[in-house]
Write a structure and sequence with these properties.
Length: 330
């Protein structure tokens, strides 16, 4: 019975996921390399989760999100976070109209499908929390009125590495609201040569619209249907619990290195991201490799390290690697 259902689901996903190739084709016109980042944007879109990107400036983060918004025919807003930014600059405010003798709502840039929150760690906690509340509640209150945010609603926040001056690190509880934290690296030599040529010759590639927001919302429904076996569920739980109780998973040497383990949001987002990853791979069921593929991005910002770990230069990446190597694969 399950086999028949999975076969039908596979056929359904083969049809519904055909737009993935179209999006990749258009994105590849303007983005050279950075396939990992583009794929994670797609996962966030399909799994209805927000993404935090960390990397130095100039790695096509802004270009990626603007191109994706254009390909999907969606509204796009770019918000540059600065120390003097106020919550009203983000959400909107009430403005008094002399003509009507009443207060009118002026909506802020948060009212869009795709939000690029550029350098989110450059603004104070008050502004960060205003954005994160909108992300969580999917609505904004201005004065006495509450306005729902239009779906799909995806926030892509970028942050500089914390060592840089003039930054306000995001508190752990706020970072946890991001489905994934993706670390962006420099392009390869050949990729950079192509980037150099394209810009030196002023060959500005443009993207075409190939899909609309309604198609994305339908694809989300299908993504939720991707089959997740109980063995895979147990695998997810074991991975998360290994970060909380390392000694129970033959990782006793990590006990003094982990301050706190991954939250229940890690379990939820591992499942959702793995389903989206399976959808992108045109499959109707999740396999352990899907979990392993998304584990670093889902969990790297959810593990708190002790001073001892920092002194020994042990990162959350090292802990995730060891957890994945130790926890039994179904």
């Amino acid at each position: 019975m399950i086999e028949t259902n999975i076969r039908e689901l596979n056929e359904k996903i083969q049809q519904e996921s055909s737009f993935i190739d179209l999006i990749n084709l258009e994105m590849n016109k303007v983005i050279i390399g950075q396939k990992h980042m583009v794929e994670r944007l797609m996962i966030g879109l399909l799994a209805n989760g927000h993404i935090l990107l960390e990397g130095v400036p100039g790695l096509a983060k802004t270009l990626a999100i603007t191109s994706l918004a254009n390909v999907i025919e969606a509204k796009f807003s770019r918000i540059q976070f600065t120390p003097d930014l106020l919550p009203a600059d983000l959400l909107g405010t009430l403005i008094y109209s002399m003509k009507n003798e009443e207060f009118l709502v002026r909506k802020g840039p948060i009212f869009a499908n795709f939000i690029l929150a550029d350098e989110i760690n450059r603004s104070p906690a008050k502004v960060q929390s205003a954005l994160l509340e909108a992300m969580q509640e999917r609505q904004v209150t201005i004065g006495d009125e509450t306005f729902p945010l239009e779906e799909p609603f995806l926030v892509l926040a970028t942050q500089n590495p914390i060592e840089q001056e003039g930054t306000y690190p995001l508190p752990e509880a706020q970072v946890d609201r991001f489905m994934m934290k993706v670390v962006i690296s420099y392009p390869e030599k050949e990729e950079e040569k192509l980037i150099l040529r394209q810009n030196a010759l002023n060959e500005k590639a443009t993207t075409n619209t190939v899909i609309n927001p309604k198609d994305i919302l339908r694809a989300r429904e299908v993504t939720r249907e991707v089959y997740l076996d109980e063995k895979i569920e147990n695998y997810i739980i074991d991975i998360v619990f290994a970060t909380r109780y390392p000694s129970e998973y033959k990782l006793k040497n990590f006990e003094n290195l982990i301050n706190y383990g991954a939250s229940p949001r890690a379990s939820i987002n591992l499942a959702l991201a793995a389903k989206a990853f399976a959808f992108i791979k045109r499959r109707g069921y999740v396999i352990p490799e899907d979990i392993r593929a998304v584990a670093h991005d889902v969990m790297r910002h959810r593990i708190g390290l002790t001073y001892e770990a920092e002194a020994e230069n042990i990162t959350s990446e090292d802990i995730i690697n060891e957890v994945l190597n130790t926890v039994e694969v179904p």
